[in-house]
Design a protein that fits this description.
Layout (H helix, E strand, L loop, with lengths): L13 E8 L13 E3 L3 E9 L2 H7 L12 H8 L13 E4 L5 E4 L4 E4 L1 E3 L3
Parallel strand pairs: 2-7
Antiparallel strand pairs: 1-3, 1-4, 4-5, 5-6
């Protein structure tokens, strides 16, 4: 489908599998357990970045085009798979090589210690 991982194009390039929270009733800014439950998220593809902070910039169009702004992704977003294009608090990035899971916070990232569900 979209953004299948390949060998990094340059030294130091990383791949992240990105998951955006679905339209949830609960407050994404509230207290959260360090658990990544895939049932609460929608897979938004694999994205190449220099590091996790660069990934955040990419998915927030910091001086470049957000890949999730494409017509294909916008169609999915309009269908209600998620309610946002830009990476936001509560969204998750998984380091494709190490499997480490990080949740986006108001400032920085929280490493999550448990994953529930499969992809």
């Amino acid at each position: 489908m979209i953004n299948q991982p390949a060998a990094p194009a340059e030294t130091g390039t990383m791949f992240f599998s990105v998951y955006y929270r679905k339209q949830l009733e609960r407050n994404p800014f509230g207290e959260k357990a360090p658990i990544f439950n895939k049932a609460d998220f929608h897979y938004m593809g694999n994205h190449e970045a220099k590091n996790i902070d660069d990934l955040f910039g990419l998915l927030n169009a910091a001086g470049r085009a957000n890949p999730l702004g494409s017509a294909e992704w916008q169609h999915l977003i309009r269908q209600g798979v998620t309610d946002h294009t830009s990476m936001s608090v509560g969204d998750v990035a998984v380091d494709y090589n190490t499997g480490e899971v990080f949740r986006c916070e108001m400032t920085g990232w929280t490493k999550l210690t448990e994953t529930v569900g499969t992809r």
